[in-house]
Amino acid sequence: MKIVLASNNKGKLAELQALFGELGVELVPQAELGVPEAPEPFHTFLENALTKARNASQHSGLPAIADDAGLCVDAFGGQPGVQTAYYATQFGYPKGDDNNVTALLEQMQGITQRRAALVSTLVAVRSPDDPEPLVAVGRAVGQITRQPIGDHGFGFDPVMFIPELNQTFAQMDPDEKNRRSHRGQSAREMVRLLRNTWLAPDA
């Protein structure tokens, strides 16, 4: 079964494909099918993910899955949230993971409350007008470090410290990260939903 992934992020594709592989599902990034990026005007992960999934399905004629994810920092009232990908641009940096990390650490200088959560919301639709989208949410809570630690992963992985493991996500091997991460949690729930709904044998 082919499902369009409403993203062109290679790190996201690799993580999700590894987790979805057990279903025999092939995730195809939307760029390979000429799908344009959808606008993301909303303030919640759910609304943006749903918009992206419907857009990818409409342009491809295939079922689609979209992920909207971001960092919610307690000291910033839950921000940057849905604006995570563009966080660095608020402070004069070009868009990009490394610049996001740099900007975050600069803005958190002198802040002792460093609790934050990485949140992932996955939405799957069978068609653009699917009245019953599947929704899965994952949340990983940790502390923002004072400098990047580790060489794996992407995004905020080098500064997202998980106290019970005494590691950042960037220090974990991919299998361990997939077990613990926000996207790993939401993907496992989406696998369960897909298996029980779209892929369930006829009664």
* Strand percent estimate: 15-25%
Q: What is the C-level CATH assignment?
A: Alpha Beta
How many domains comprise the coordinates? 1
Question: Which architecture does the CATH hierarchy give at level 2?
Answer: Alpha-Beta Complex
Strand-helix topology:
Layout: E1 2-5, H1 10-20, E2 26-29, H2 45-60, E3 64-73, H3 97-107, E4 115-125, E5 134-144, E6 160-162, E7 167-168, H4 174-180, H5 182-196
Parallel strand pairs: 1-2, 1-3
Antiparallel strand pairs: 3-4, 4-5, 5-6, 6-7
Helix pairs in contact: 1-5, 4-5
EC number: 3.6.1.66
Binding site for Mg(2+): 68
Subunit structure: Homodimer.
Task: Report what the structure shows.
Helix content is 30%, strand content 22%. By secondary structure, it is α/β, with parallel strands linked by helices. The chain has a single domain, classed as Maf protein. The chain has a 7-stranded mixed beta sheet. Strand 1, helix 1 and strand 2 form a beta-alpha-beta unit. Helix 1 packs across helix 5 and helix 4 packs across helix 5. The radius of gyration is 17 Å and the shape is globular. The two termini are 20 Å apart.
Task: Name some characteristics of this structure.
alpha/beta, Maf protein, seven-stranded mixed β-sheet, 5 helices
Short description:
With 203 residues, this protein is an alpha/beta fold. The protein contains 5 helices and 7 strands.
